[in-house]
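Hey L., structure's done. Input below.
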Amino acid sequence: MKNYGPAASLVGKIAVKIVLFTLIIGFVVRSVMIGITGTSVLNMSFMQYCGAYLLGMVNDLAFATLSLVFVWAFVLSVGRFKYTKPVGWSILVALVVGTFILKWFCPVLHEFNRGLARVLVWVMVYWTVVFGLRLFLPRMRGGWTRFWLAAILFLYIAIIYLNGVGEYFFWDEFGVRYNFIAVDYLVYTSEVIGNIMESYPMVPLTVVLVAVSGVTAWLLFRRQIQQSNDLYLGGWKLRVTGAYFVGGVLSLWLLSAMSSLQKSDNLYYNELQANGAYRFFDAFLKNRLDYERFYYSLPESQAADLVNNLYDSTGRLERFVAGDSIEHRYNVVLITMESMSADYMEHFGGKPGVTPTLDSLYSRSISFDRMFANGNRTVRGLEALSLSLPPSAGQSLIKRPDLKMRPNVGGILREKGYQTFFFYGGKSYFDNMGPFFKSLGFEIVDKDDFKPGEIEFSHVWGVCDEDSYLKMLSTLDDKSATGAPFYAQIMTISNHRPYTYPEGRIDIPPTAKSREGGVKYSDYALGRFMAEASTKPWFENTLFVIVADHCASSAGGTELPLDKYHIPAMIYAPGLLEPMTVQHTVSQIDLMPTVLSLLGVGYDSTFYGRDVFAPDYTPRAFLATYQDLGYLEGDTLTVLSPVKRVRQYVVKPEPANPLNLEKIEVIDSVQANRAAALYQTSALWND
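Output:
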């Protein structure tokens, strides 16, 4: 009987050390998160701190166990059997044939992504050559196993370190663990990598990471690496596989069970006890949620009747919105400003001198003191402004693969003879913006349409705001010559990390890469645009709608902190509209229906947004994360969450936060039903 004890012991020691190292890093990361946030902000009890660490350790243990799958796959691949005849020859032939197929007989892959195809071909060539060498030169096998075991263990340590550093930066930026934001950004690799490279000192950080990972891996695993030839002993793999299978199943159950404990009213407590990597994969899988399955719902007929009674509509919210006897063929320029929280403005208590343009325009416009964004990502804002719908559960409609023509503001104006444009200074495939607006019938103008002489400054996300505005001005000059009115929407970029912009524009140098600099430059660029626009012949016949897409951060002590959804919004048209301030609550989805009303346009509608000046308008707002759906009416916020959970909060102003929320213990069923009906019907009728 062969002695397979040393091999099993070797694998066991590797697994234990990886798990223990993961637990240590998890403990450090939680401690850093607590430290940078501060106990006063976290507002957690002593028992919650204990729970965050203890439950967090269990989550980390379960995920670390699952992550051992790569070690398990590697040790299973080590052995003499694959080099025996005819197995070895069969594998070598298969590798050669596979290489030829990839190189010369797979045109679809080469057309889809030539770079990826080239990489895969070289991987196959490499794999074929090294397997052939090991097949014919047995003395290479031991050294090869040691090398790859060392490489895999180094990668484990590096990834654990990298994940810890990544979680720190993500927490510092958003105040939460990895979520849909991280998943979405992963899709746009070039922009994200470029953003990271421009935002952080990546070269020294990478050198330090590699060095520290190498030293750590050697200190932890040098003996196991030297003993790697024990893996060639037979008879142990079935036992190791059985043990890993049991541990993996238990870990999956634990991660699912522990998620049910992350339902505290304190969002920070929920986030601290979670495992960040698991949160990432969980978010990846939950990009689309069936409303009636996961959320508090009413019978379909009851929900439909409730909503149709609210809107005086029939069917699927179908109604005619009457216009004035005379339609005003004003041009409309919709400026959607990246991450422009209301509290940046001096009007809302922000630092003086940061947003002089916005503050000046605000006093000369129809302005909205209590406008709330639909969500915490650009696509949520664009969805609200173009489709006038409550935010969808899970992924935004803009990001869905099944794009189609939907009722939209641009479509209504095109029927009235308007030209419609969407301007973006970056690549409009990002966040699926270009395909989405194209599906709605807009003409797209993005970075690909800029001539070299039209770009003074750009970073990874695209050209600076000044260049975008100038491109829009020149395009609108050409289009206005046709005599047809235009509806032009622009999405700005500069108020986004890395917060870089042209030199000499503001008193904060771009080398500072500060958020305040991004805000101030974005405001400066807007001021320059308005000055240039005022010289155009079409200026006096144009409504300028200025609004943020979302706030700079959505983190807070509750799932939906109102102050993190409060955005500036105004409609500026000197000579056409009298300035006034709307002081009651308004949703982002109401802004464009209000503009249509100011134009005097009558239209068939299925919008959930309404004219805020209509006599029957009820002040309310929709706001959401990717899973929590909020409905604010009066001073009561209803939050609908998966597992059919309903919570309510009341606005209790504090000196430092006029939009502070306190939980209500007794649910107002009337408002809960209204919130459920609005979200439920929107999901059923517009998904």
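The longest strand covers residues 580-587. The radius of gyration is 29 Å.

-- N.
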